[in-house]
Amino acid sequence: MHLKRWLTGIIAVPILIFLITCQLRLPFYTLLYLASLVGLIEFYRMTAPDLPKFVRWSSYFLTFLLFAVIFERQILLVPVVIVLWAFVPMAYYMLTHPAPSRQWTSDIGKAVLGPLYVSIPLTMLLHIDRYYPKGSIWIFFLLAVIFASDTGALYSGKLFGKHKLYEAISPGKTWEGAIGGLLSSLIVAFFFLKIIPMHRLHINILILAAALSVAGQIGDLSESMLKRNYGIKDSGHILPGHGGILDRIDGLLFCIPVLYVYLSFSIR
Protein backbone atom coordinates (compact mmCIF):
# COMPACT_ATOMS: atom_id res chain seq x y z
CA MET A 1 0.00 0.00 0.00
CA HIS A 2 2.76 2.46 0.94
CA LEU A 3 4.70 1.59 -2.22
CA LYS A 4 1.64 2.33 -4.35
CA ARG A 5 1.10 5.62 -2.51
CA TRP A 6 4.67 6.74 -3.12
CA LEU A 7 4.68 5.60 -6.76
CA THR A 8 1.44 7.49 -7.41
CA GLY A 9 2.95 10.56 -5.75
CA ILE A 10 6.19 10.31 -7.74
CA ILE A 11 4.21 10.25 -10.97
CA ALA A 12 1.57 12.83 -10.02
CA VAL A 13 3.71 15.48 -8.32
CA PRO A 14 5.86 16.43 -11.36
CA ILE A 15 2.72 16.68 -13.49
CA LEU A 16 1.06 18.88 -10.88
CA ILE A 17 4.15 21.10 -10.60
CA PHE A 18 4.25 21.51 -14.37
CA LEU A 19 0.56 22.44 -14.56
CA ILE A 20 0.81 24.96 -11.72
CA THR A 21 3.95 26.64 -13.11
CA CYS A 22 2.90 26.50 -16.75
CA GLN A 23 2.22 29.96 -18.21
CA LEU A 24 -0.91 28.58 -19.87
CA ARG A 25 -3.36 28.48 -16.96
CA LEU A 26 -6.17 26.65 -18.74
CA PRO A 27 -4.64 23.13 -18.25
CA PHE A 28 -4.39 23.70 -14.49
CA TYR A 29 -7.93 25.04 -14.28
CA THR A 30 -9.14 22.09 -16.34
CA LEU A 31 -7.45 19.75 -13.84
CA LEU A 32 -9.24 21.53 -10.98
CA TYR A 33 -12.58 21.15 -12.72
CA LEU A 34 -11.98 17.47 -13.47
CA ALA A 35 -11.02 16.87 -9.83
CA SER A 36 -14.21 18.64 -8.79
CA LEU A 37 -16.28 16.62 -11.25
CA VAL A 38 -14.85 13.26 -10.20
CA GLY A 39 -15.13 14.25 -6.54
CA LEU A 40 -18.81 15.08 -7.03
CA ILE A 41 -19.42 11.78 -8.80
CA GLU A 42 -17.77 9.92 -5.91
CA PHE A 43 -19.73 11.92 -3.33
CA TYR A 44 -23.09 11.22 -4.96
CA ARG A 45 -22.24 7.57 -5.56
CA MET A 46 -21.35 7.23 -1.88
CA THR A 47 -24.15 9.25 -0.25
CA ALA A 48 -27.01 9.31 -2.76
CA PRO A 49 -26.75 6.56 -5.37
CA ASP A 50 -30.47 6.93 -6.21
CA LEU A 51 -30.29 10.68 -6.81
CA PRO A 52 -32.11 11.45 -10.11
CA LYS A 53 -29.82 11.83 -13.12
CA PHE A 54 -31.18 15.30 -13.87
CA VAL A 55 -30.20 16.55 -10.41
CA ARG A 56 -26.73 15.02 -10.64
CA TRP A 57 -26.05 16.31 -14.16
CA SER A 58 -27.37 19.77 -13.33
CA SER A 59 -24.91 19.84 -10.44
CA TYR A 60 -22.05 18.85 -12.77
CA PHE A 61 -23.06 21.58 -15.22
CA LEU A 62 -23.38 24.25 -12.52
CA THR A 63 -19.92 23.27 -11.30
CA PHE A 64 -18.57 23.90 -14.80
CA LEU A 65 -20.48 27.18 -14.90
CA LEU A 66 -18.96 28.29 -11.60
CA PHE A 67 -15.44 27.60 -12.88
CA ALA A 68 -16.29 29.45 -16.11
CA VAL A 69 -17.60 32.62 -14.45
CA ILE A 70 -14.53 32.83 -12.19
CA PHE A 71 -12.21 32.18 -15.13
CA GLU A 72 -13.98 34.96 -17.09
CA ARG A 73 -13.80 37.27 -14.05
CA GLN A 74 -17.59 37.52 -13.75
CA ILE A 75 -17.51 37.38 -9.96
CA LEU A 76 -20.95 38.94 -9.53
CA LEU A 77 -22.46 35.80 -11.08
CA VAL A 78 -20.95 33.47 -8.46
CA PRO A 79 -23.85 33.89 -5.95
CA VAL A 80 -26.32 33.15 -8.75
CA VAL A 81 -24.68 29.81 -9.52
CA ILE A 82 -24.53 28.88 -5.83
CA VAL A 83 -28.22 29.66 -5.37
CA LEU A 84 -29.10 27.53 -8.41
CA TRP A 85 -27.50 24.51 -6.70
CA ALA A 86 -30.38 24.67 -4.22
CA PHE A 87 -33.16 25.93 -6.49
CA VAL A 88 -32.71 23.38 -9.30
CA PRO A 89 -33.19 20.20 -7.21
CA MET A 90 -36.00 21.81 -5.21
CA ALA A 91 -37.87 22.77 -8.39
CA TYR A 92 -37.21 19.36 -9.94
CA TYR A 93 -38.70 17.43 -7.01
CA MET A 94 -41.65 19.80 -6.81
CA LEU A 95 -42.47 19.36 -10.51
CA THR A 96 -41.79 15.62 -10.88
CA HIS A 97 -42.90 14.07 -7.57
CA PRO A 98 -46.62 14.63 -6.94
CA ALA A 99 -46.68 12.79 -3.60
CA PRO A 100 -44.76 14.62 -0.83
CA SER A 101 -42.06 12.64 0.95
CA ARG A 102 -39.48 13.35 3.64
CA GLN A 103 -36.95 11.61 1.40
CA TRP A 104 -37.07 14.68 -0.84
CA THR A 105 -35.45 16.81 1.83
CA SER A 106 -32.69 14.25 2.33
CA ASP A 107 -32.02 14.02 -1.41
CA ILE A 108 -32.05 17.79 -1.89
CA GLY A 109 -29.71 18.23 1.06
CA LYS A 110 -27.22 15.74 -0.37
CA ALA A 111 -27.53 17.32 -3.83
CA VAL A 112 -26.59 20.72 -2.38
CA LEU A 113 -23.95 19.46 0.07
CA GLY A 114 -21.89 17.86 -2.70
CA PRO A 115 -20.98 21.10 -4.53
CA LEU A 116 -20.54 23.02 -1.25
CA TYR A 117 -18.16 20.35 0.00
CA VAL A 118 -16.24 19.61 -3.22
CA SER A 119 -16.71 22.27 -5.88
CA ILE A 120 -16.60 25.58 -4.04
CA PRO A 121 -13.24 24.96 -2.30
CA LEU A 122 -11.63 24.01 -5.61
CA THR A 123 -12.99 27.13 -7.29
CA MET A 124 -11.46 29.10 -4.42
CA LEU A 125 -8.12 27.64 -5.49
CA LEU A 126 -8.76 28.92 -9.01
CA HIS A 127 -9.65 32.30 -7.52
CA ILE A 128 -6.40 32.40 -5.52
CA ASP A 129 -4.35 31.60 -8.60
CA ARG A 130 -6.16 34.09 -10.82
CA TYR A 131 -6.70 37.08 -8.54
CA TYR A 132 -4.02 37.16 -5.83
CA PRO A 133 -0.36 38.17 -6.26
CA LYS A 134 1.93 35.12 -6.34
CA GLY A 135 -1.18 32.94 -6.36
CA SER A 136 0.59 29.90 -7.81
CA ILE A 137 3.32 30.16 -5.13
CA TRP A 138 0.65 30.23 -2.43
CA ILE A 139 -0.84 27.09 -3.94
CA PHE A 140 2.58 25.42 -3.74
CA PHE A 141 2.84 26.53 -0.11
CA LEU A 142 -0.58 25.05 0.63
CA LEU A 143 0.23 21.73 -1.03
CA ALA A 144 3.65 21.49 0.67
CA VAL A 145 2.17 22.13 4.12
CA ILE A 146 -0.66 19.65 3.61
CA PHE A 147 1.62 16.97 2.21
CA ALA A 148 3.95 17.45 5.19
CA SER A 149 1.02 17.27 7.60
CA ASP A 150 -0.35 14.08 6.02
CA THR A 151 3.04 12.39 5.86
CA GLY A 152 4.08 13.49 9.33
CA ALA A 153 0.79 12.31 10.83
CA LEU A 154 1.02 8.95 9.07
CA TYR A 155 4.52 8.06 10.19
CA SER A 156 4.37 9.71 13.61
CA GLY A 157 1.24 7.72 14.30
CA LYS A 158 2.91 4.49 13.22
CA LEU A 159 6.02 5.11 15.30
CA PHE A 160 4.60 6.72 18.43
CA GLY A 161 0.83 6.37 18.27
CA LYS A 162 -0.82 5.15 21.47
CA HIS A 163 -3.78 7.43 22.18
CA LYS A 164 -6.67 7.23 19.74
CA LEU A 165 -7.75 10.51 18.18
CA TYR A 166 -11.31 9.54 17.16
CA GLU A 167 -11.63 5.77 17.30
CA ALA A 168 -15.32 5.67 16.35
CA ILE A 169 -14.57 7.24 12.96
CA SER A 170 -10.93 6.40 12.21
CA PRO A 171 -9.39 3.76 14.50
CA GLY A 172 -5.92 4.18 13.01
CA LYS A 173 -5.47 7.86 13.81
CA THR A 174 -3.82 8.92 17.05
CA TRP A 175 -3.09 12.12 18.93
CA GLU A 176 0.62 11.46 18.50
CA GLY A 177 0.10 11.29 14.74
CA ALA A 178 -1.92 14.53 14.77
CA ILE A 179 0.82 16.34 16.71
CA GLY A 180 3.45 14.91 14.37
CA GLY A 181 1.50 16.21 11.39
CA LEU A 182 1.22 19.65 13.00
CA LEU A 183 4.96 19.85 13.73
CA SER A 184 5.82 18.63 10.23
CA SER A 185 3.67 21.34 8.65
CA LEU A 186 5.39 24.04 10.75
CA ILE A 187 8.86 22.78 9.79
CA VAL A 188 8.02 22.64 6.09
CA ALA A 189 6.41 26.11 6.20
CA PHE A 190 9.57 27.50 7.83
CA PHE A 191 11.94 26.05 5.23
CA PHE A 192 9.57 26.85 2.35
CA LEU A 193 9.73 30.55 3.24
CA LYS A 194 13.50 30.34 3.66
CA ILE A 195 13.86 28.90 0.15
CA ILE A 196 11.11 30.95 -1.51
CA PRO A 197 10.87 34.37 0.19
CA MET A 198 7.33 35.10 -0.98
CA HIS A 199 6.31 36.28 2.50
CA ARG A 200 8.33 37.46 5.46
CA LEU A 201 8.74 34.86 8.17
CA HIS A 202 6.33 35.98 10.85
CA ILE A 203 4.22 34.39 13.55
CA ASN A 204 1.16 34.90 11.34
CA ILE A 205 2.45 32.55 8.67
CA LEU A 206 3.26 29.87 11.24
CA ILE A 207 -0.25 30.24 12.67
CA LEU A 208 -1.54 29.82 9.11
CA ALA A 209 0.51 26.63 8.66
CA ALA A 210 -0.81 25.28 11.96
CA ALA A 211 -4.39 26.16 10.99
CA LEU A 212 -3.94 24.43 7.63
CA SER A 213 -2.67 21.29 9.35
CA VAL A 214 -5.58 21.24 11.80
CA ALA A 215 -8.13 21.95 9.04
CA GLY A 216 -6.63 19.21 6.89
CA GLN A 217 -6.87 16.65 9.67
CA ILE A 218 -10.48 17.66 10.37
CA GLY A 219 -11.23 17.28 6.67
CA ASP A 220 -9.67 13.83 6.66
CA LEU A 221 -11.79 12.78 9.64
CA SER A 222 -14.92 14.27 8.08
CA GLU A 223 -14.56 12.18 4.94
CA SER A 224 -13.83 9.13 7.10
CA MET A 225 -17.12 9.84 8.87
CA LEU A 226 -18.97 9.83 5.53
CA LYS A 227 -17.35 6.56 4.46
CA ARG A 228 -18.06 4.90 7.78
CA ASN A 229 -21.68 6.07 7.66
CA TYR A 230 -22.12 4.33 4.31
CA GLY A 231 -19.93 1.31 5.04
CA ILE A 232 -17.25 1.81 2.38
CA LYS A 233 -13.47 1.82 2.62
CA ASP A 234 -12.58 4.18 -0.24
CA SER A 235 -14.56 6.78 -2.16
CA GLY A 236 -13.20 5.34 -5.43
CA HIS A 237 -10.30 3.52 -7.04
CA ILE A 238 -8.92 6.06 -9.49
CA LEU A 239 -5.61 6.58 -7.61
CA PRO A 240 -3.62 3.42 -6.77
CA GLY A 241 -2.74 3.36 -3.08
CA HIS A 242 -4.93 6.39 -2.34
CA GLY A 243 -8.43 5.29 -3.35
CA GLY A 244 -10.62 7.94 -4.93
CA ILE A 245 -10.19 11.64 -5.58
CA LEU A 246 -12.03 12.49 -2.34
CA ASP A 247 -9.67 10.21 -0.41
CA ARG A 248 -6.77 12.28 -1.72
CA ILE A 249 -8.19 15.81 -1.43
CA ASP A 250 -10.40 15.44 1.65
CA GLY A 251 -8.02 17.45 3.83
CA LEU A 252 -7.27 19.92 1.05
CA LEU A 253 -10.96 20.79 0.70
CA PHE A 254 -11.02 22.02 4.30
CA CYS A 255 -7.69 23.84 3.98
CA ILE A 256 -8.40 25.91 0.87
CA PRO A 257 -10.99 28.16 2.59
CA VAL A 258 -8.52 28.79 5.43
CA LEU A 259 -5.86 30.01 2.98
CA TYR A 260 -8.49 31.96 1.04
CA VAL A 261 -9.60 33.85 4.14
CA TYR A 262 -5.99 34.52 5.16
CA LEU A 263 -5.10 35.96 1.76
CA SER A 264 -8.32 37.97 1.61
CA PHE A 265 -7.43 39.81 4.81
CA SER A 266 -3.63 39.93 4.53
CA ILE A 267 -3.23 40.98 0.89
CA ARG A 268 -4.59 44.39 0.01
Order of SSEs: HHHHHHEEHHH
Number of helices: 9
The main β sheet shows up as: 2 strands, antiparallel
What's the β-strand tally?
A: 2
Give the structural class: mainly alpha
Helix content: over 70%
Arrangement of strands in the largest sheet:
1-2
Shape: globular
Straight-line N-to-C gap: 45 Å
Q: Give start-end ranges of low-pLDDT stretches.
A: none
The average pLDDT score comes to 87
Radius of gyration: 19 Å
Strand content: under 5%
Summarize the structure.
The protein is mostly helical. 77% of the residues lie in helices and 3% in strands.
Descriptive report:
The protein is an all-alpha fold and 268 residues long. The chain is built from nine helices and two strands. The chain has helices spanning 2-21, 26-47, 53-71, 78-96, 102-131, 135-160, 175-195, 203-229, 245-266; strands at 164-166, 170-174. The protein has a two-stranded antiparallel sheet with strand order 1-2. Strand 1 (164-166) and strand 2 form a beta hairpin. Helix 2 runs antiparallel to helix 5 (102-131). The longest helix has 30 residues, at 102-131. It is globular and about 60 Å long.
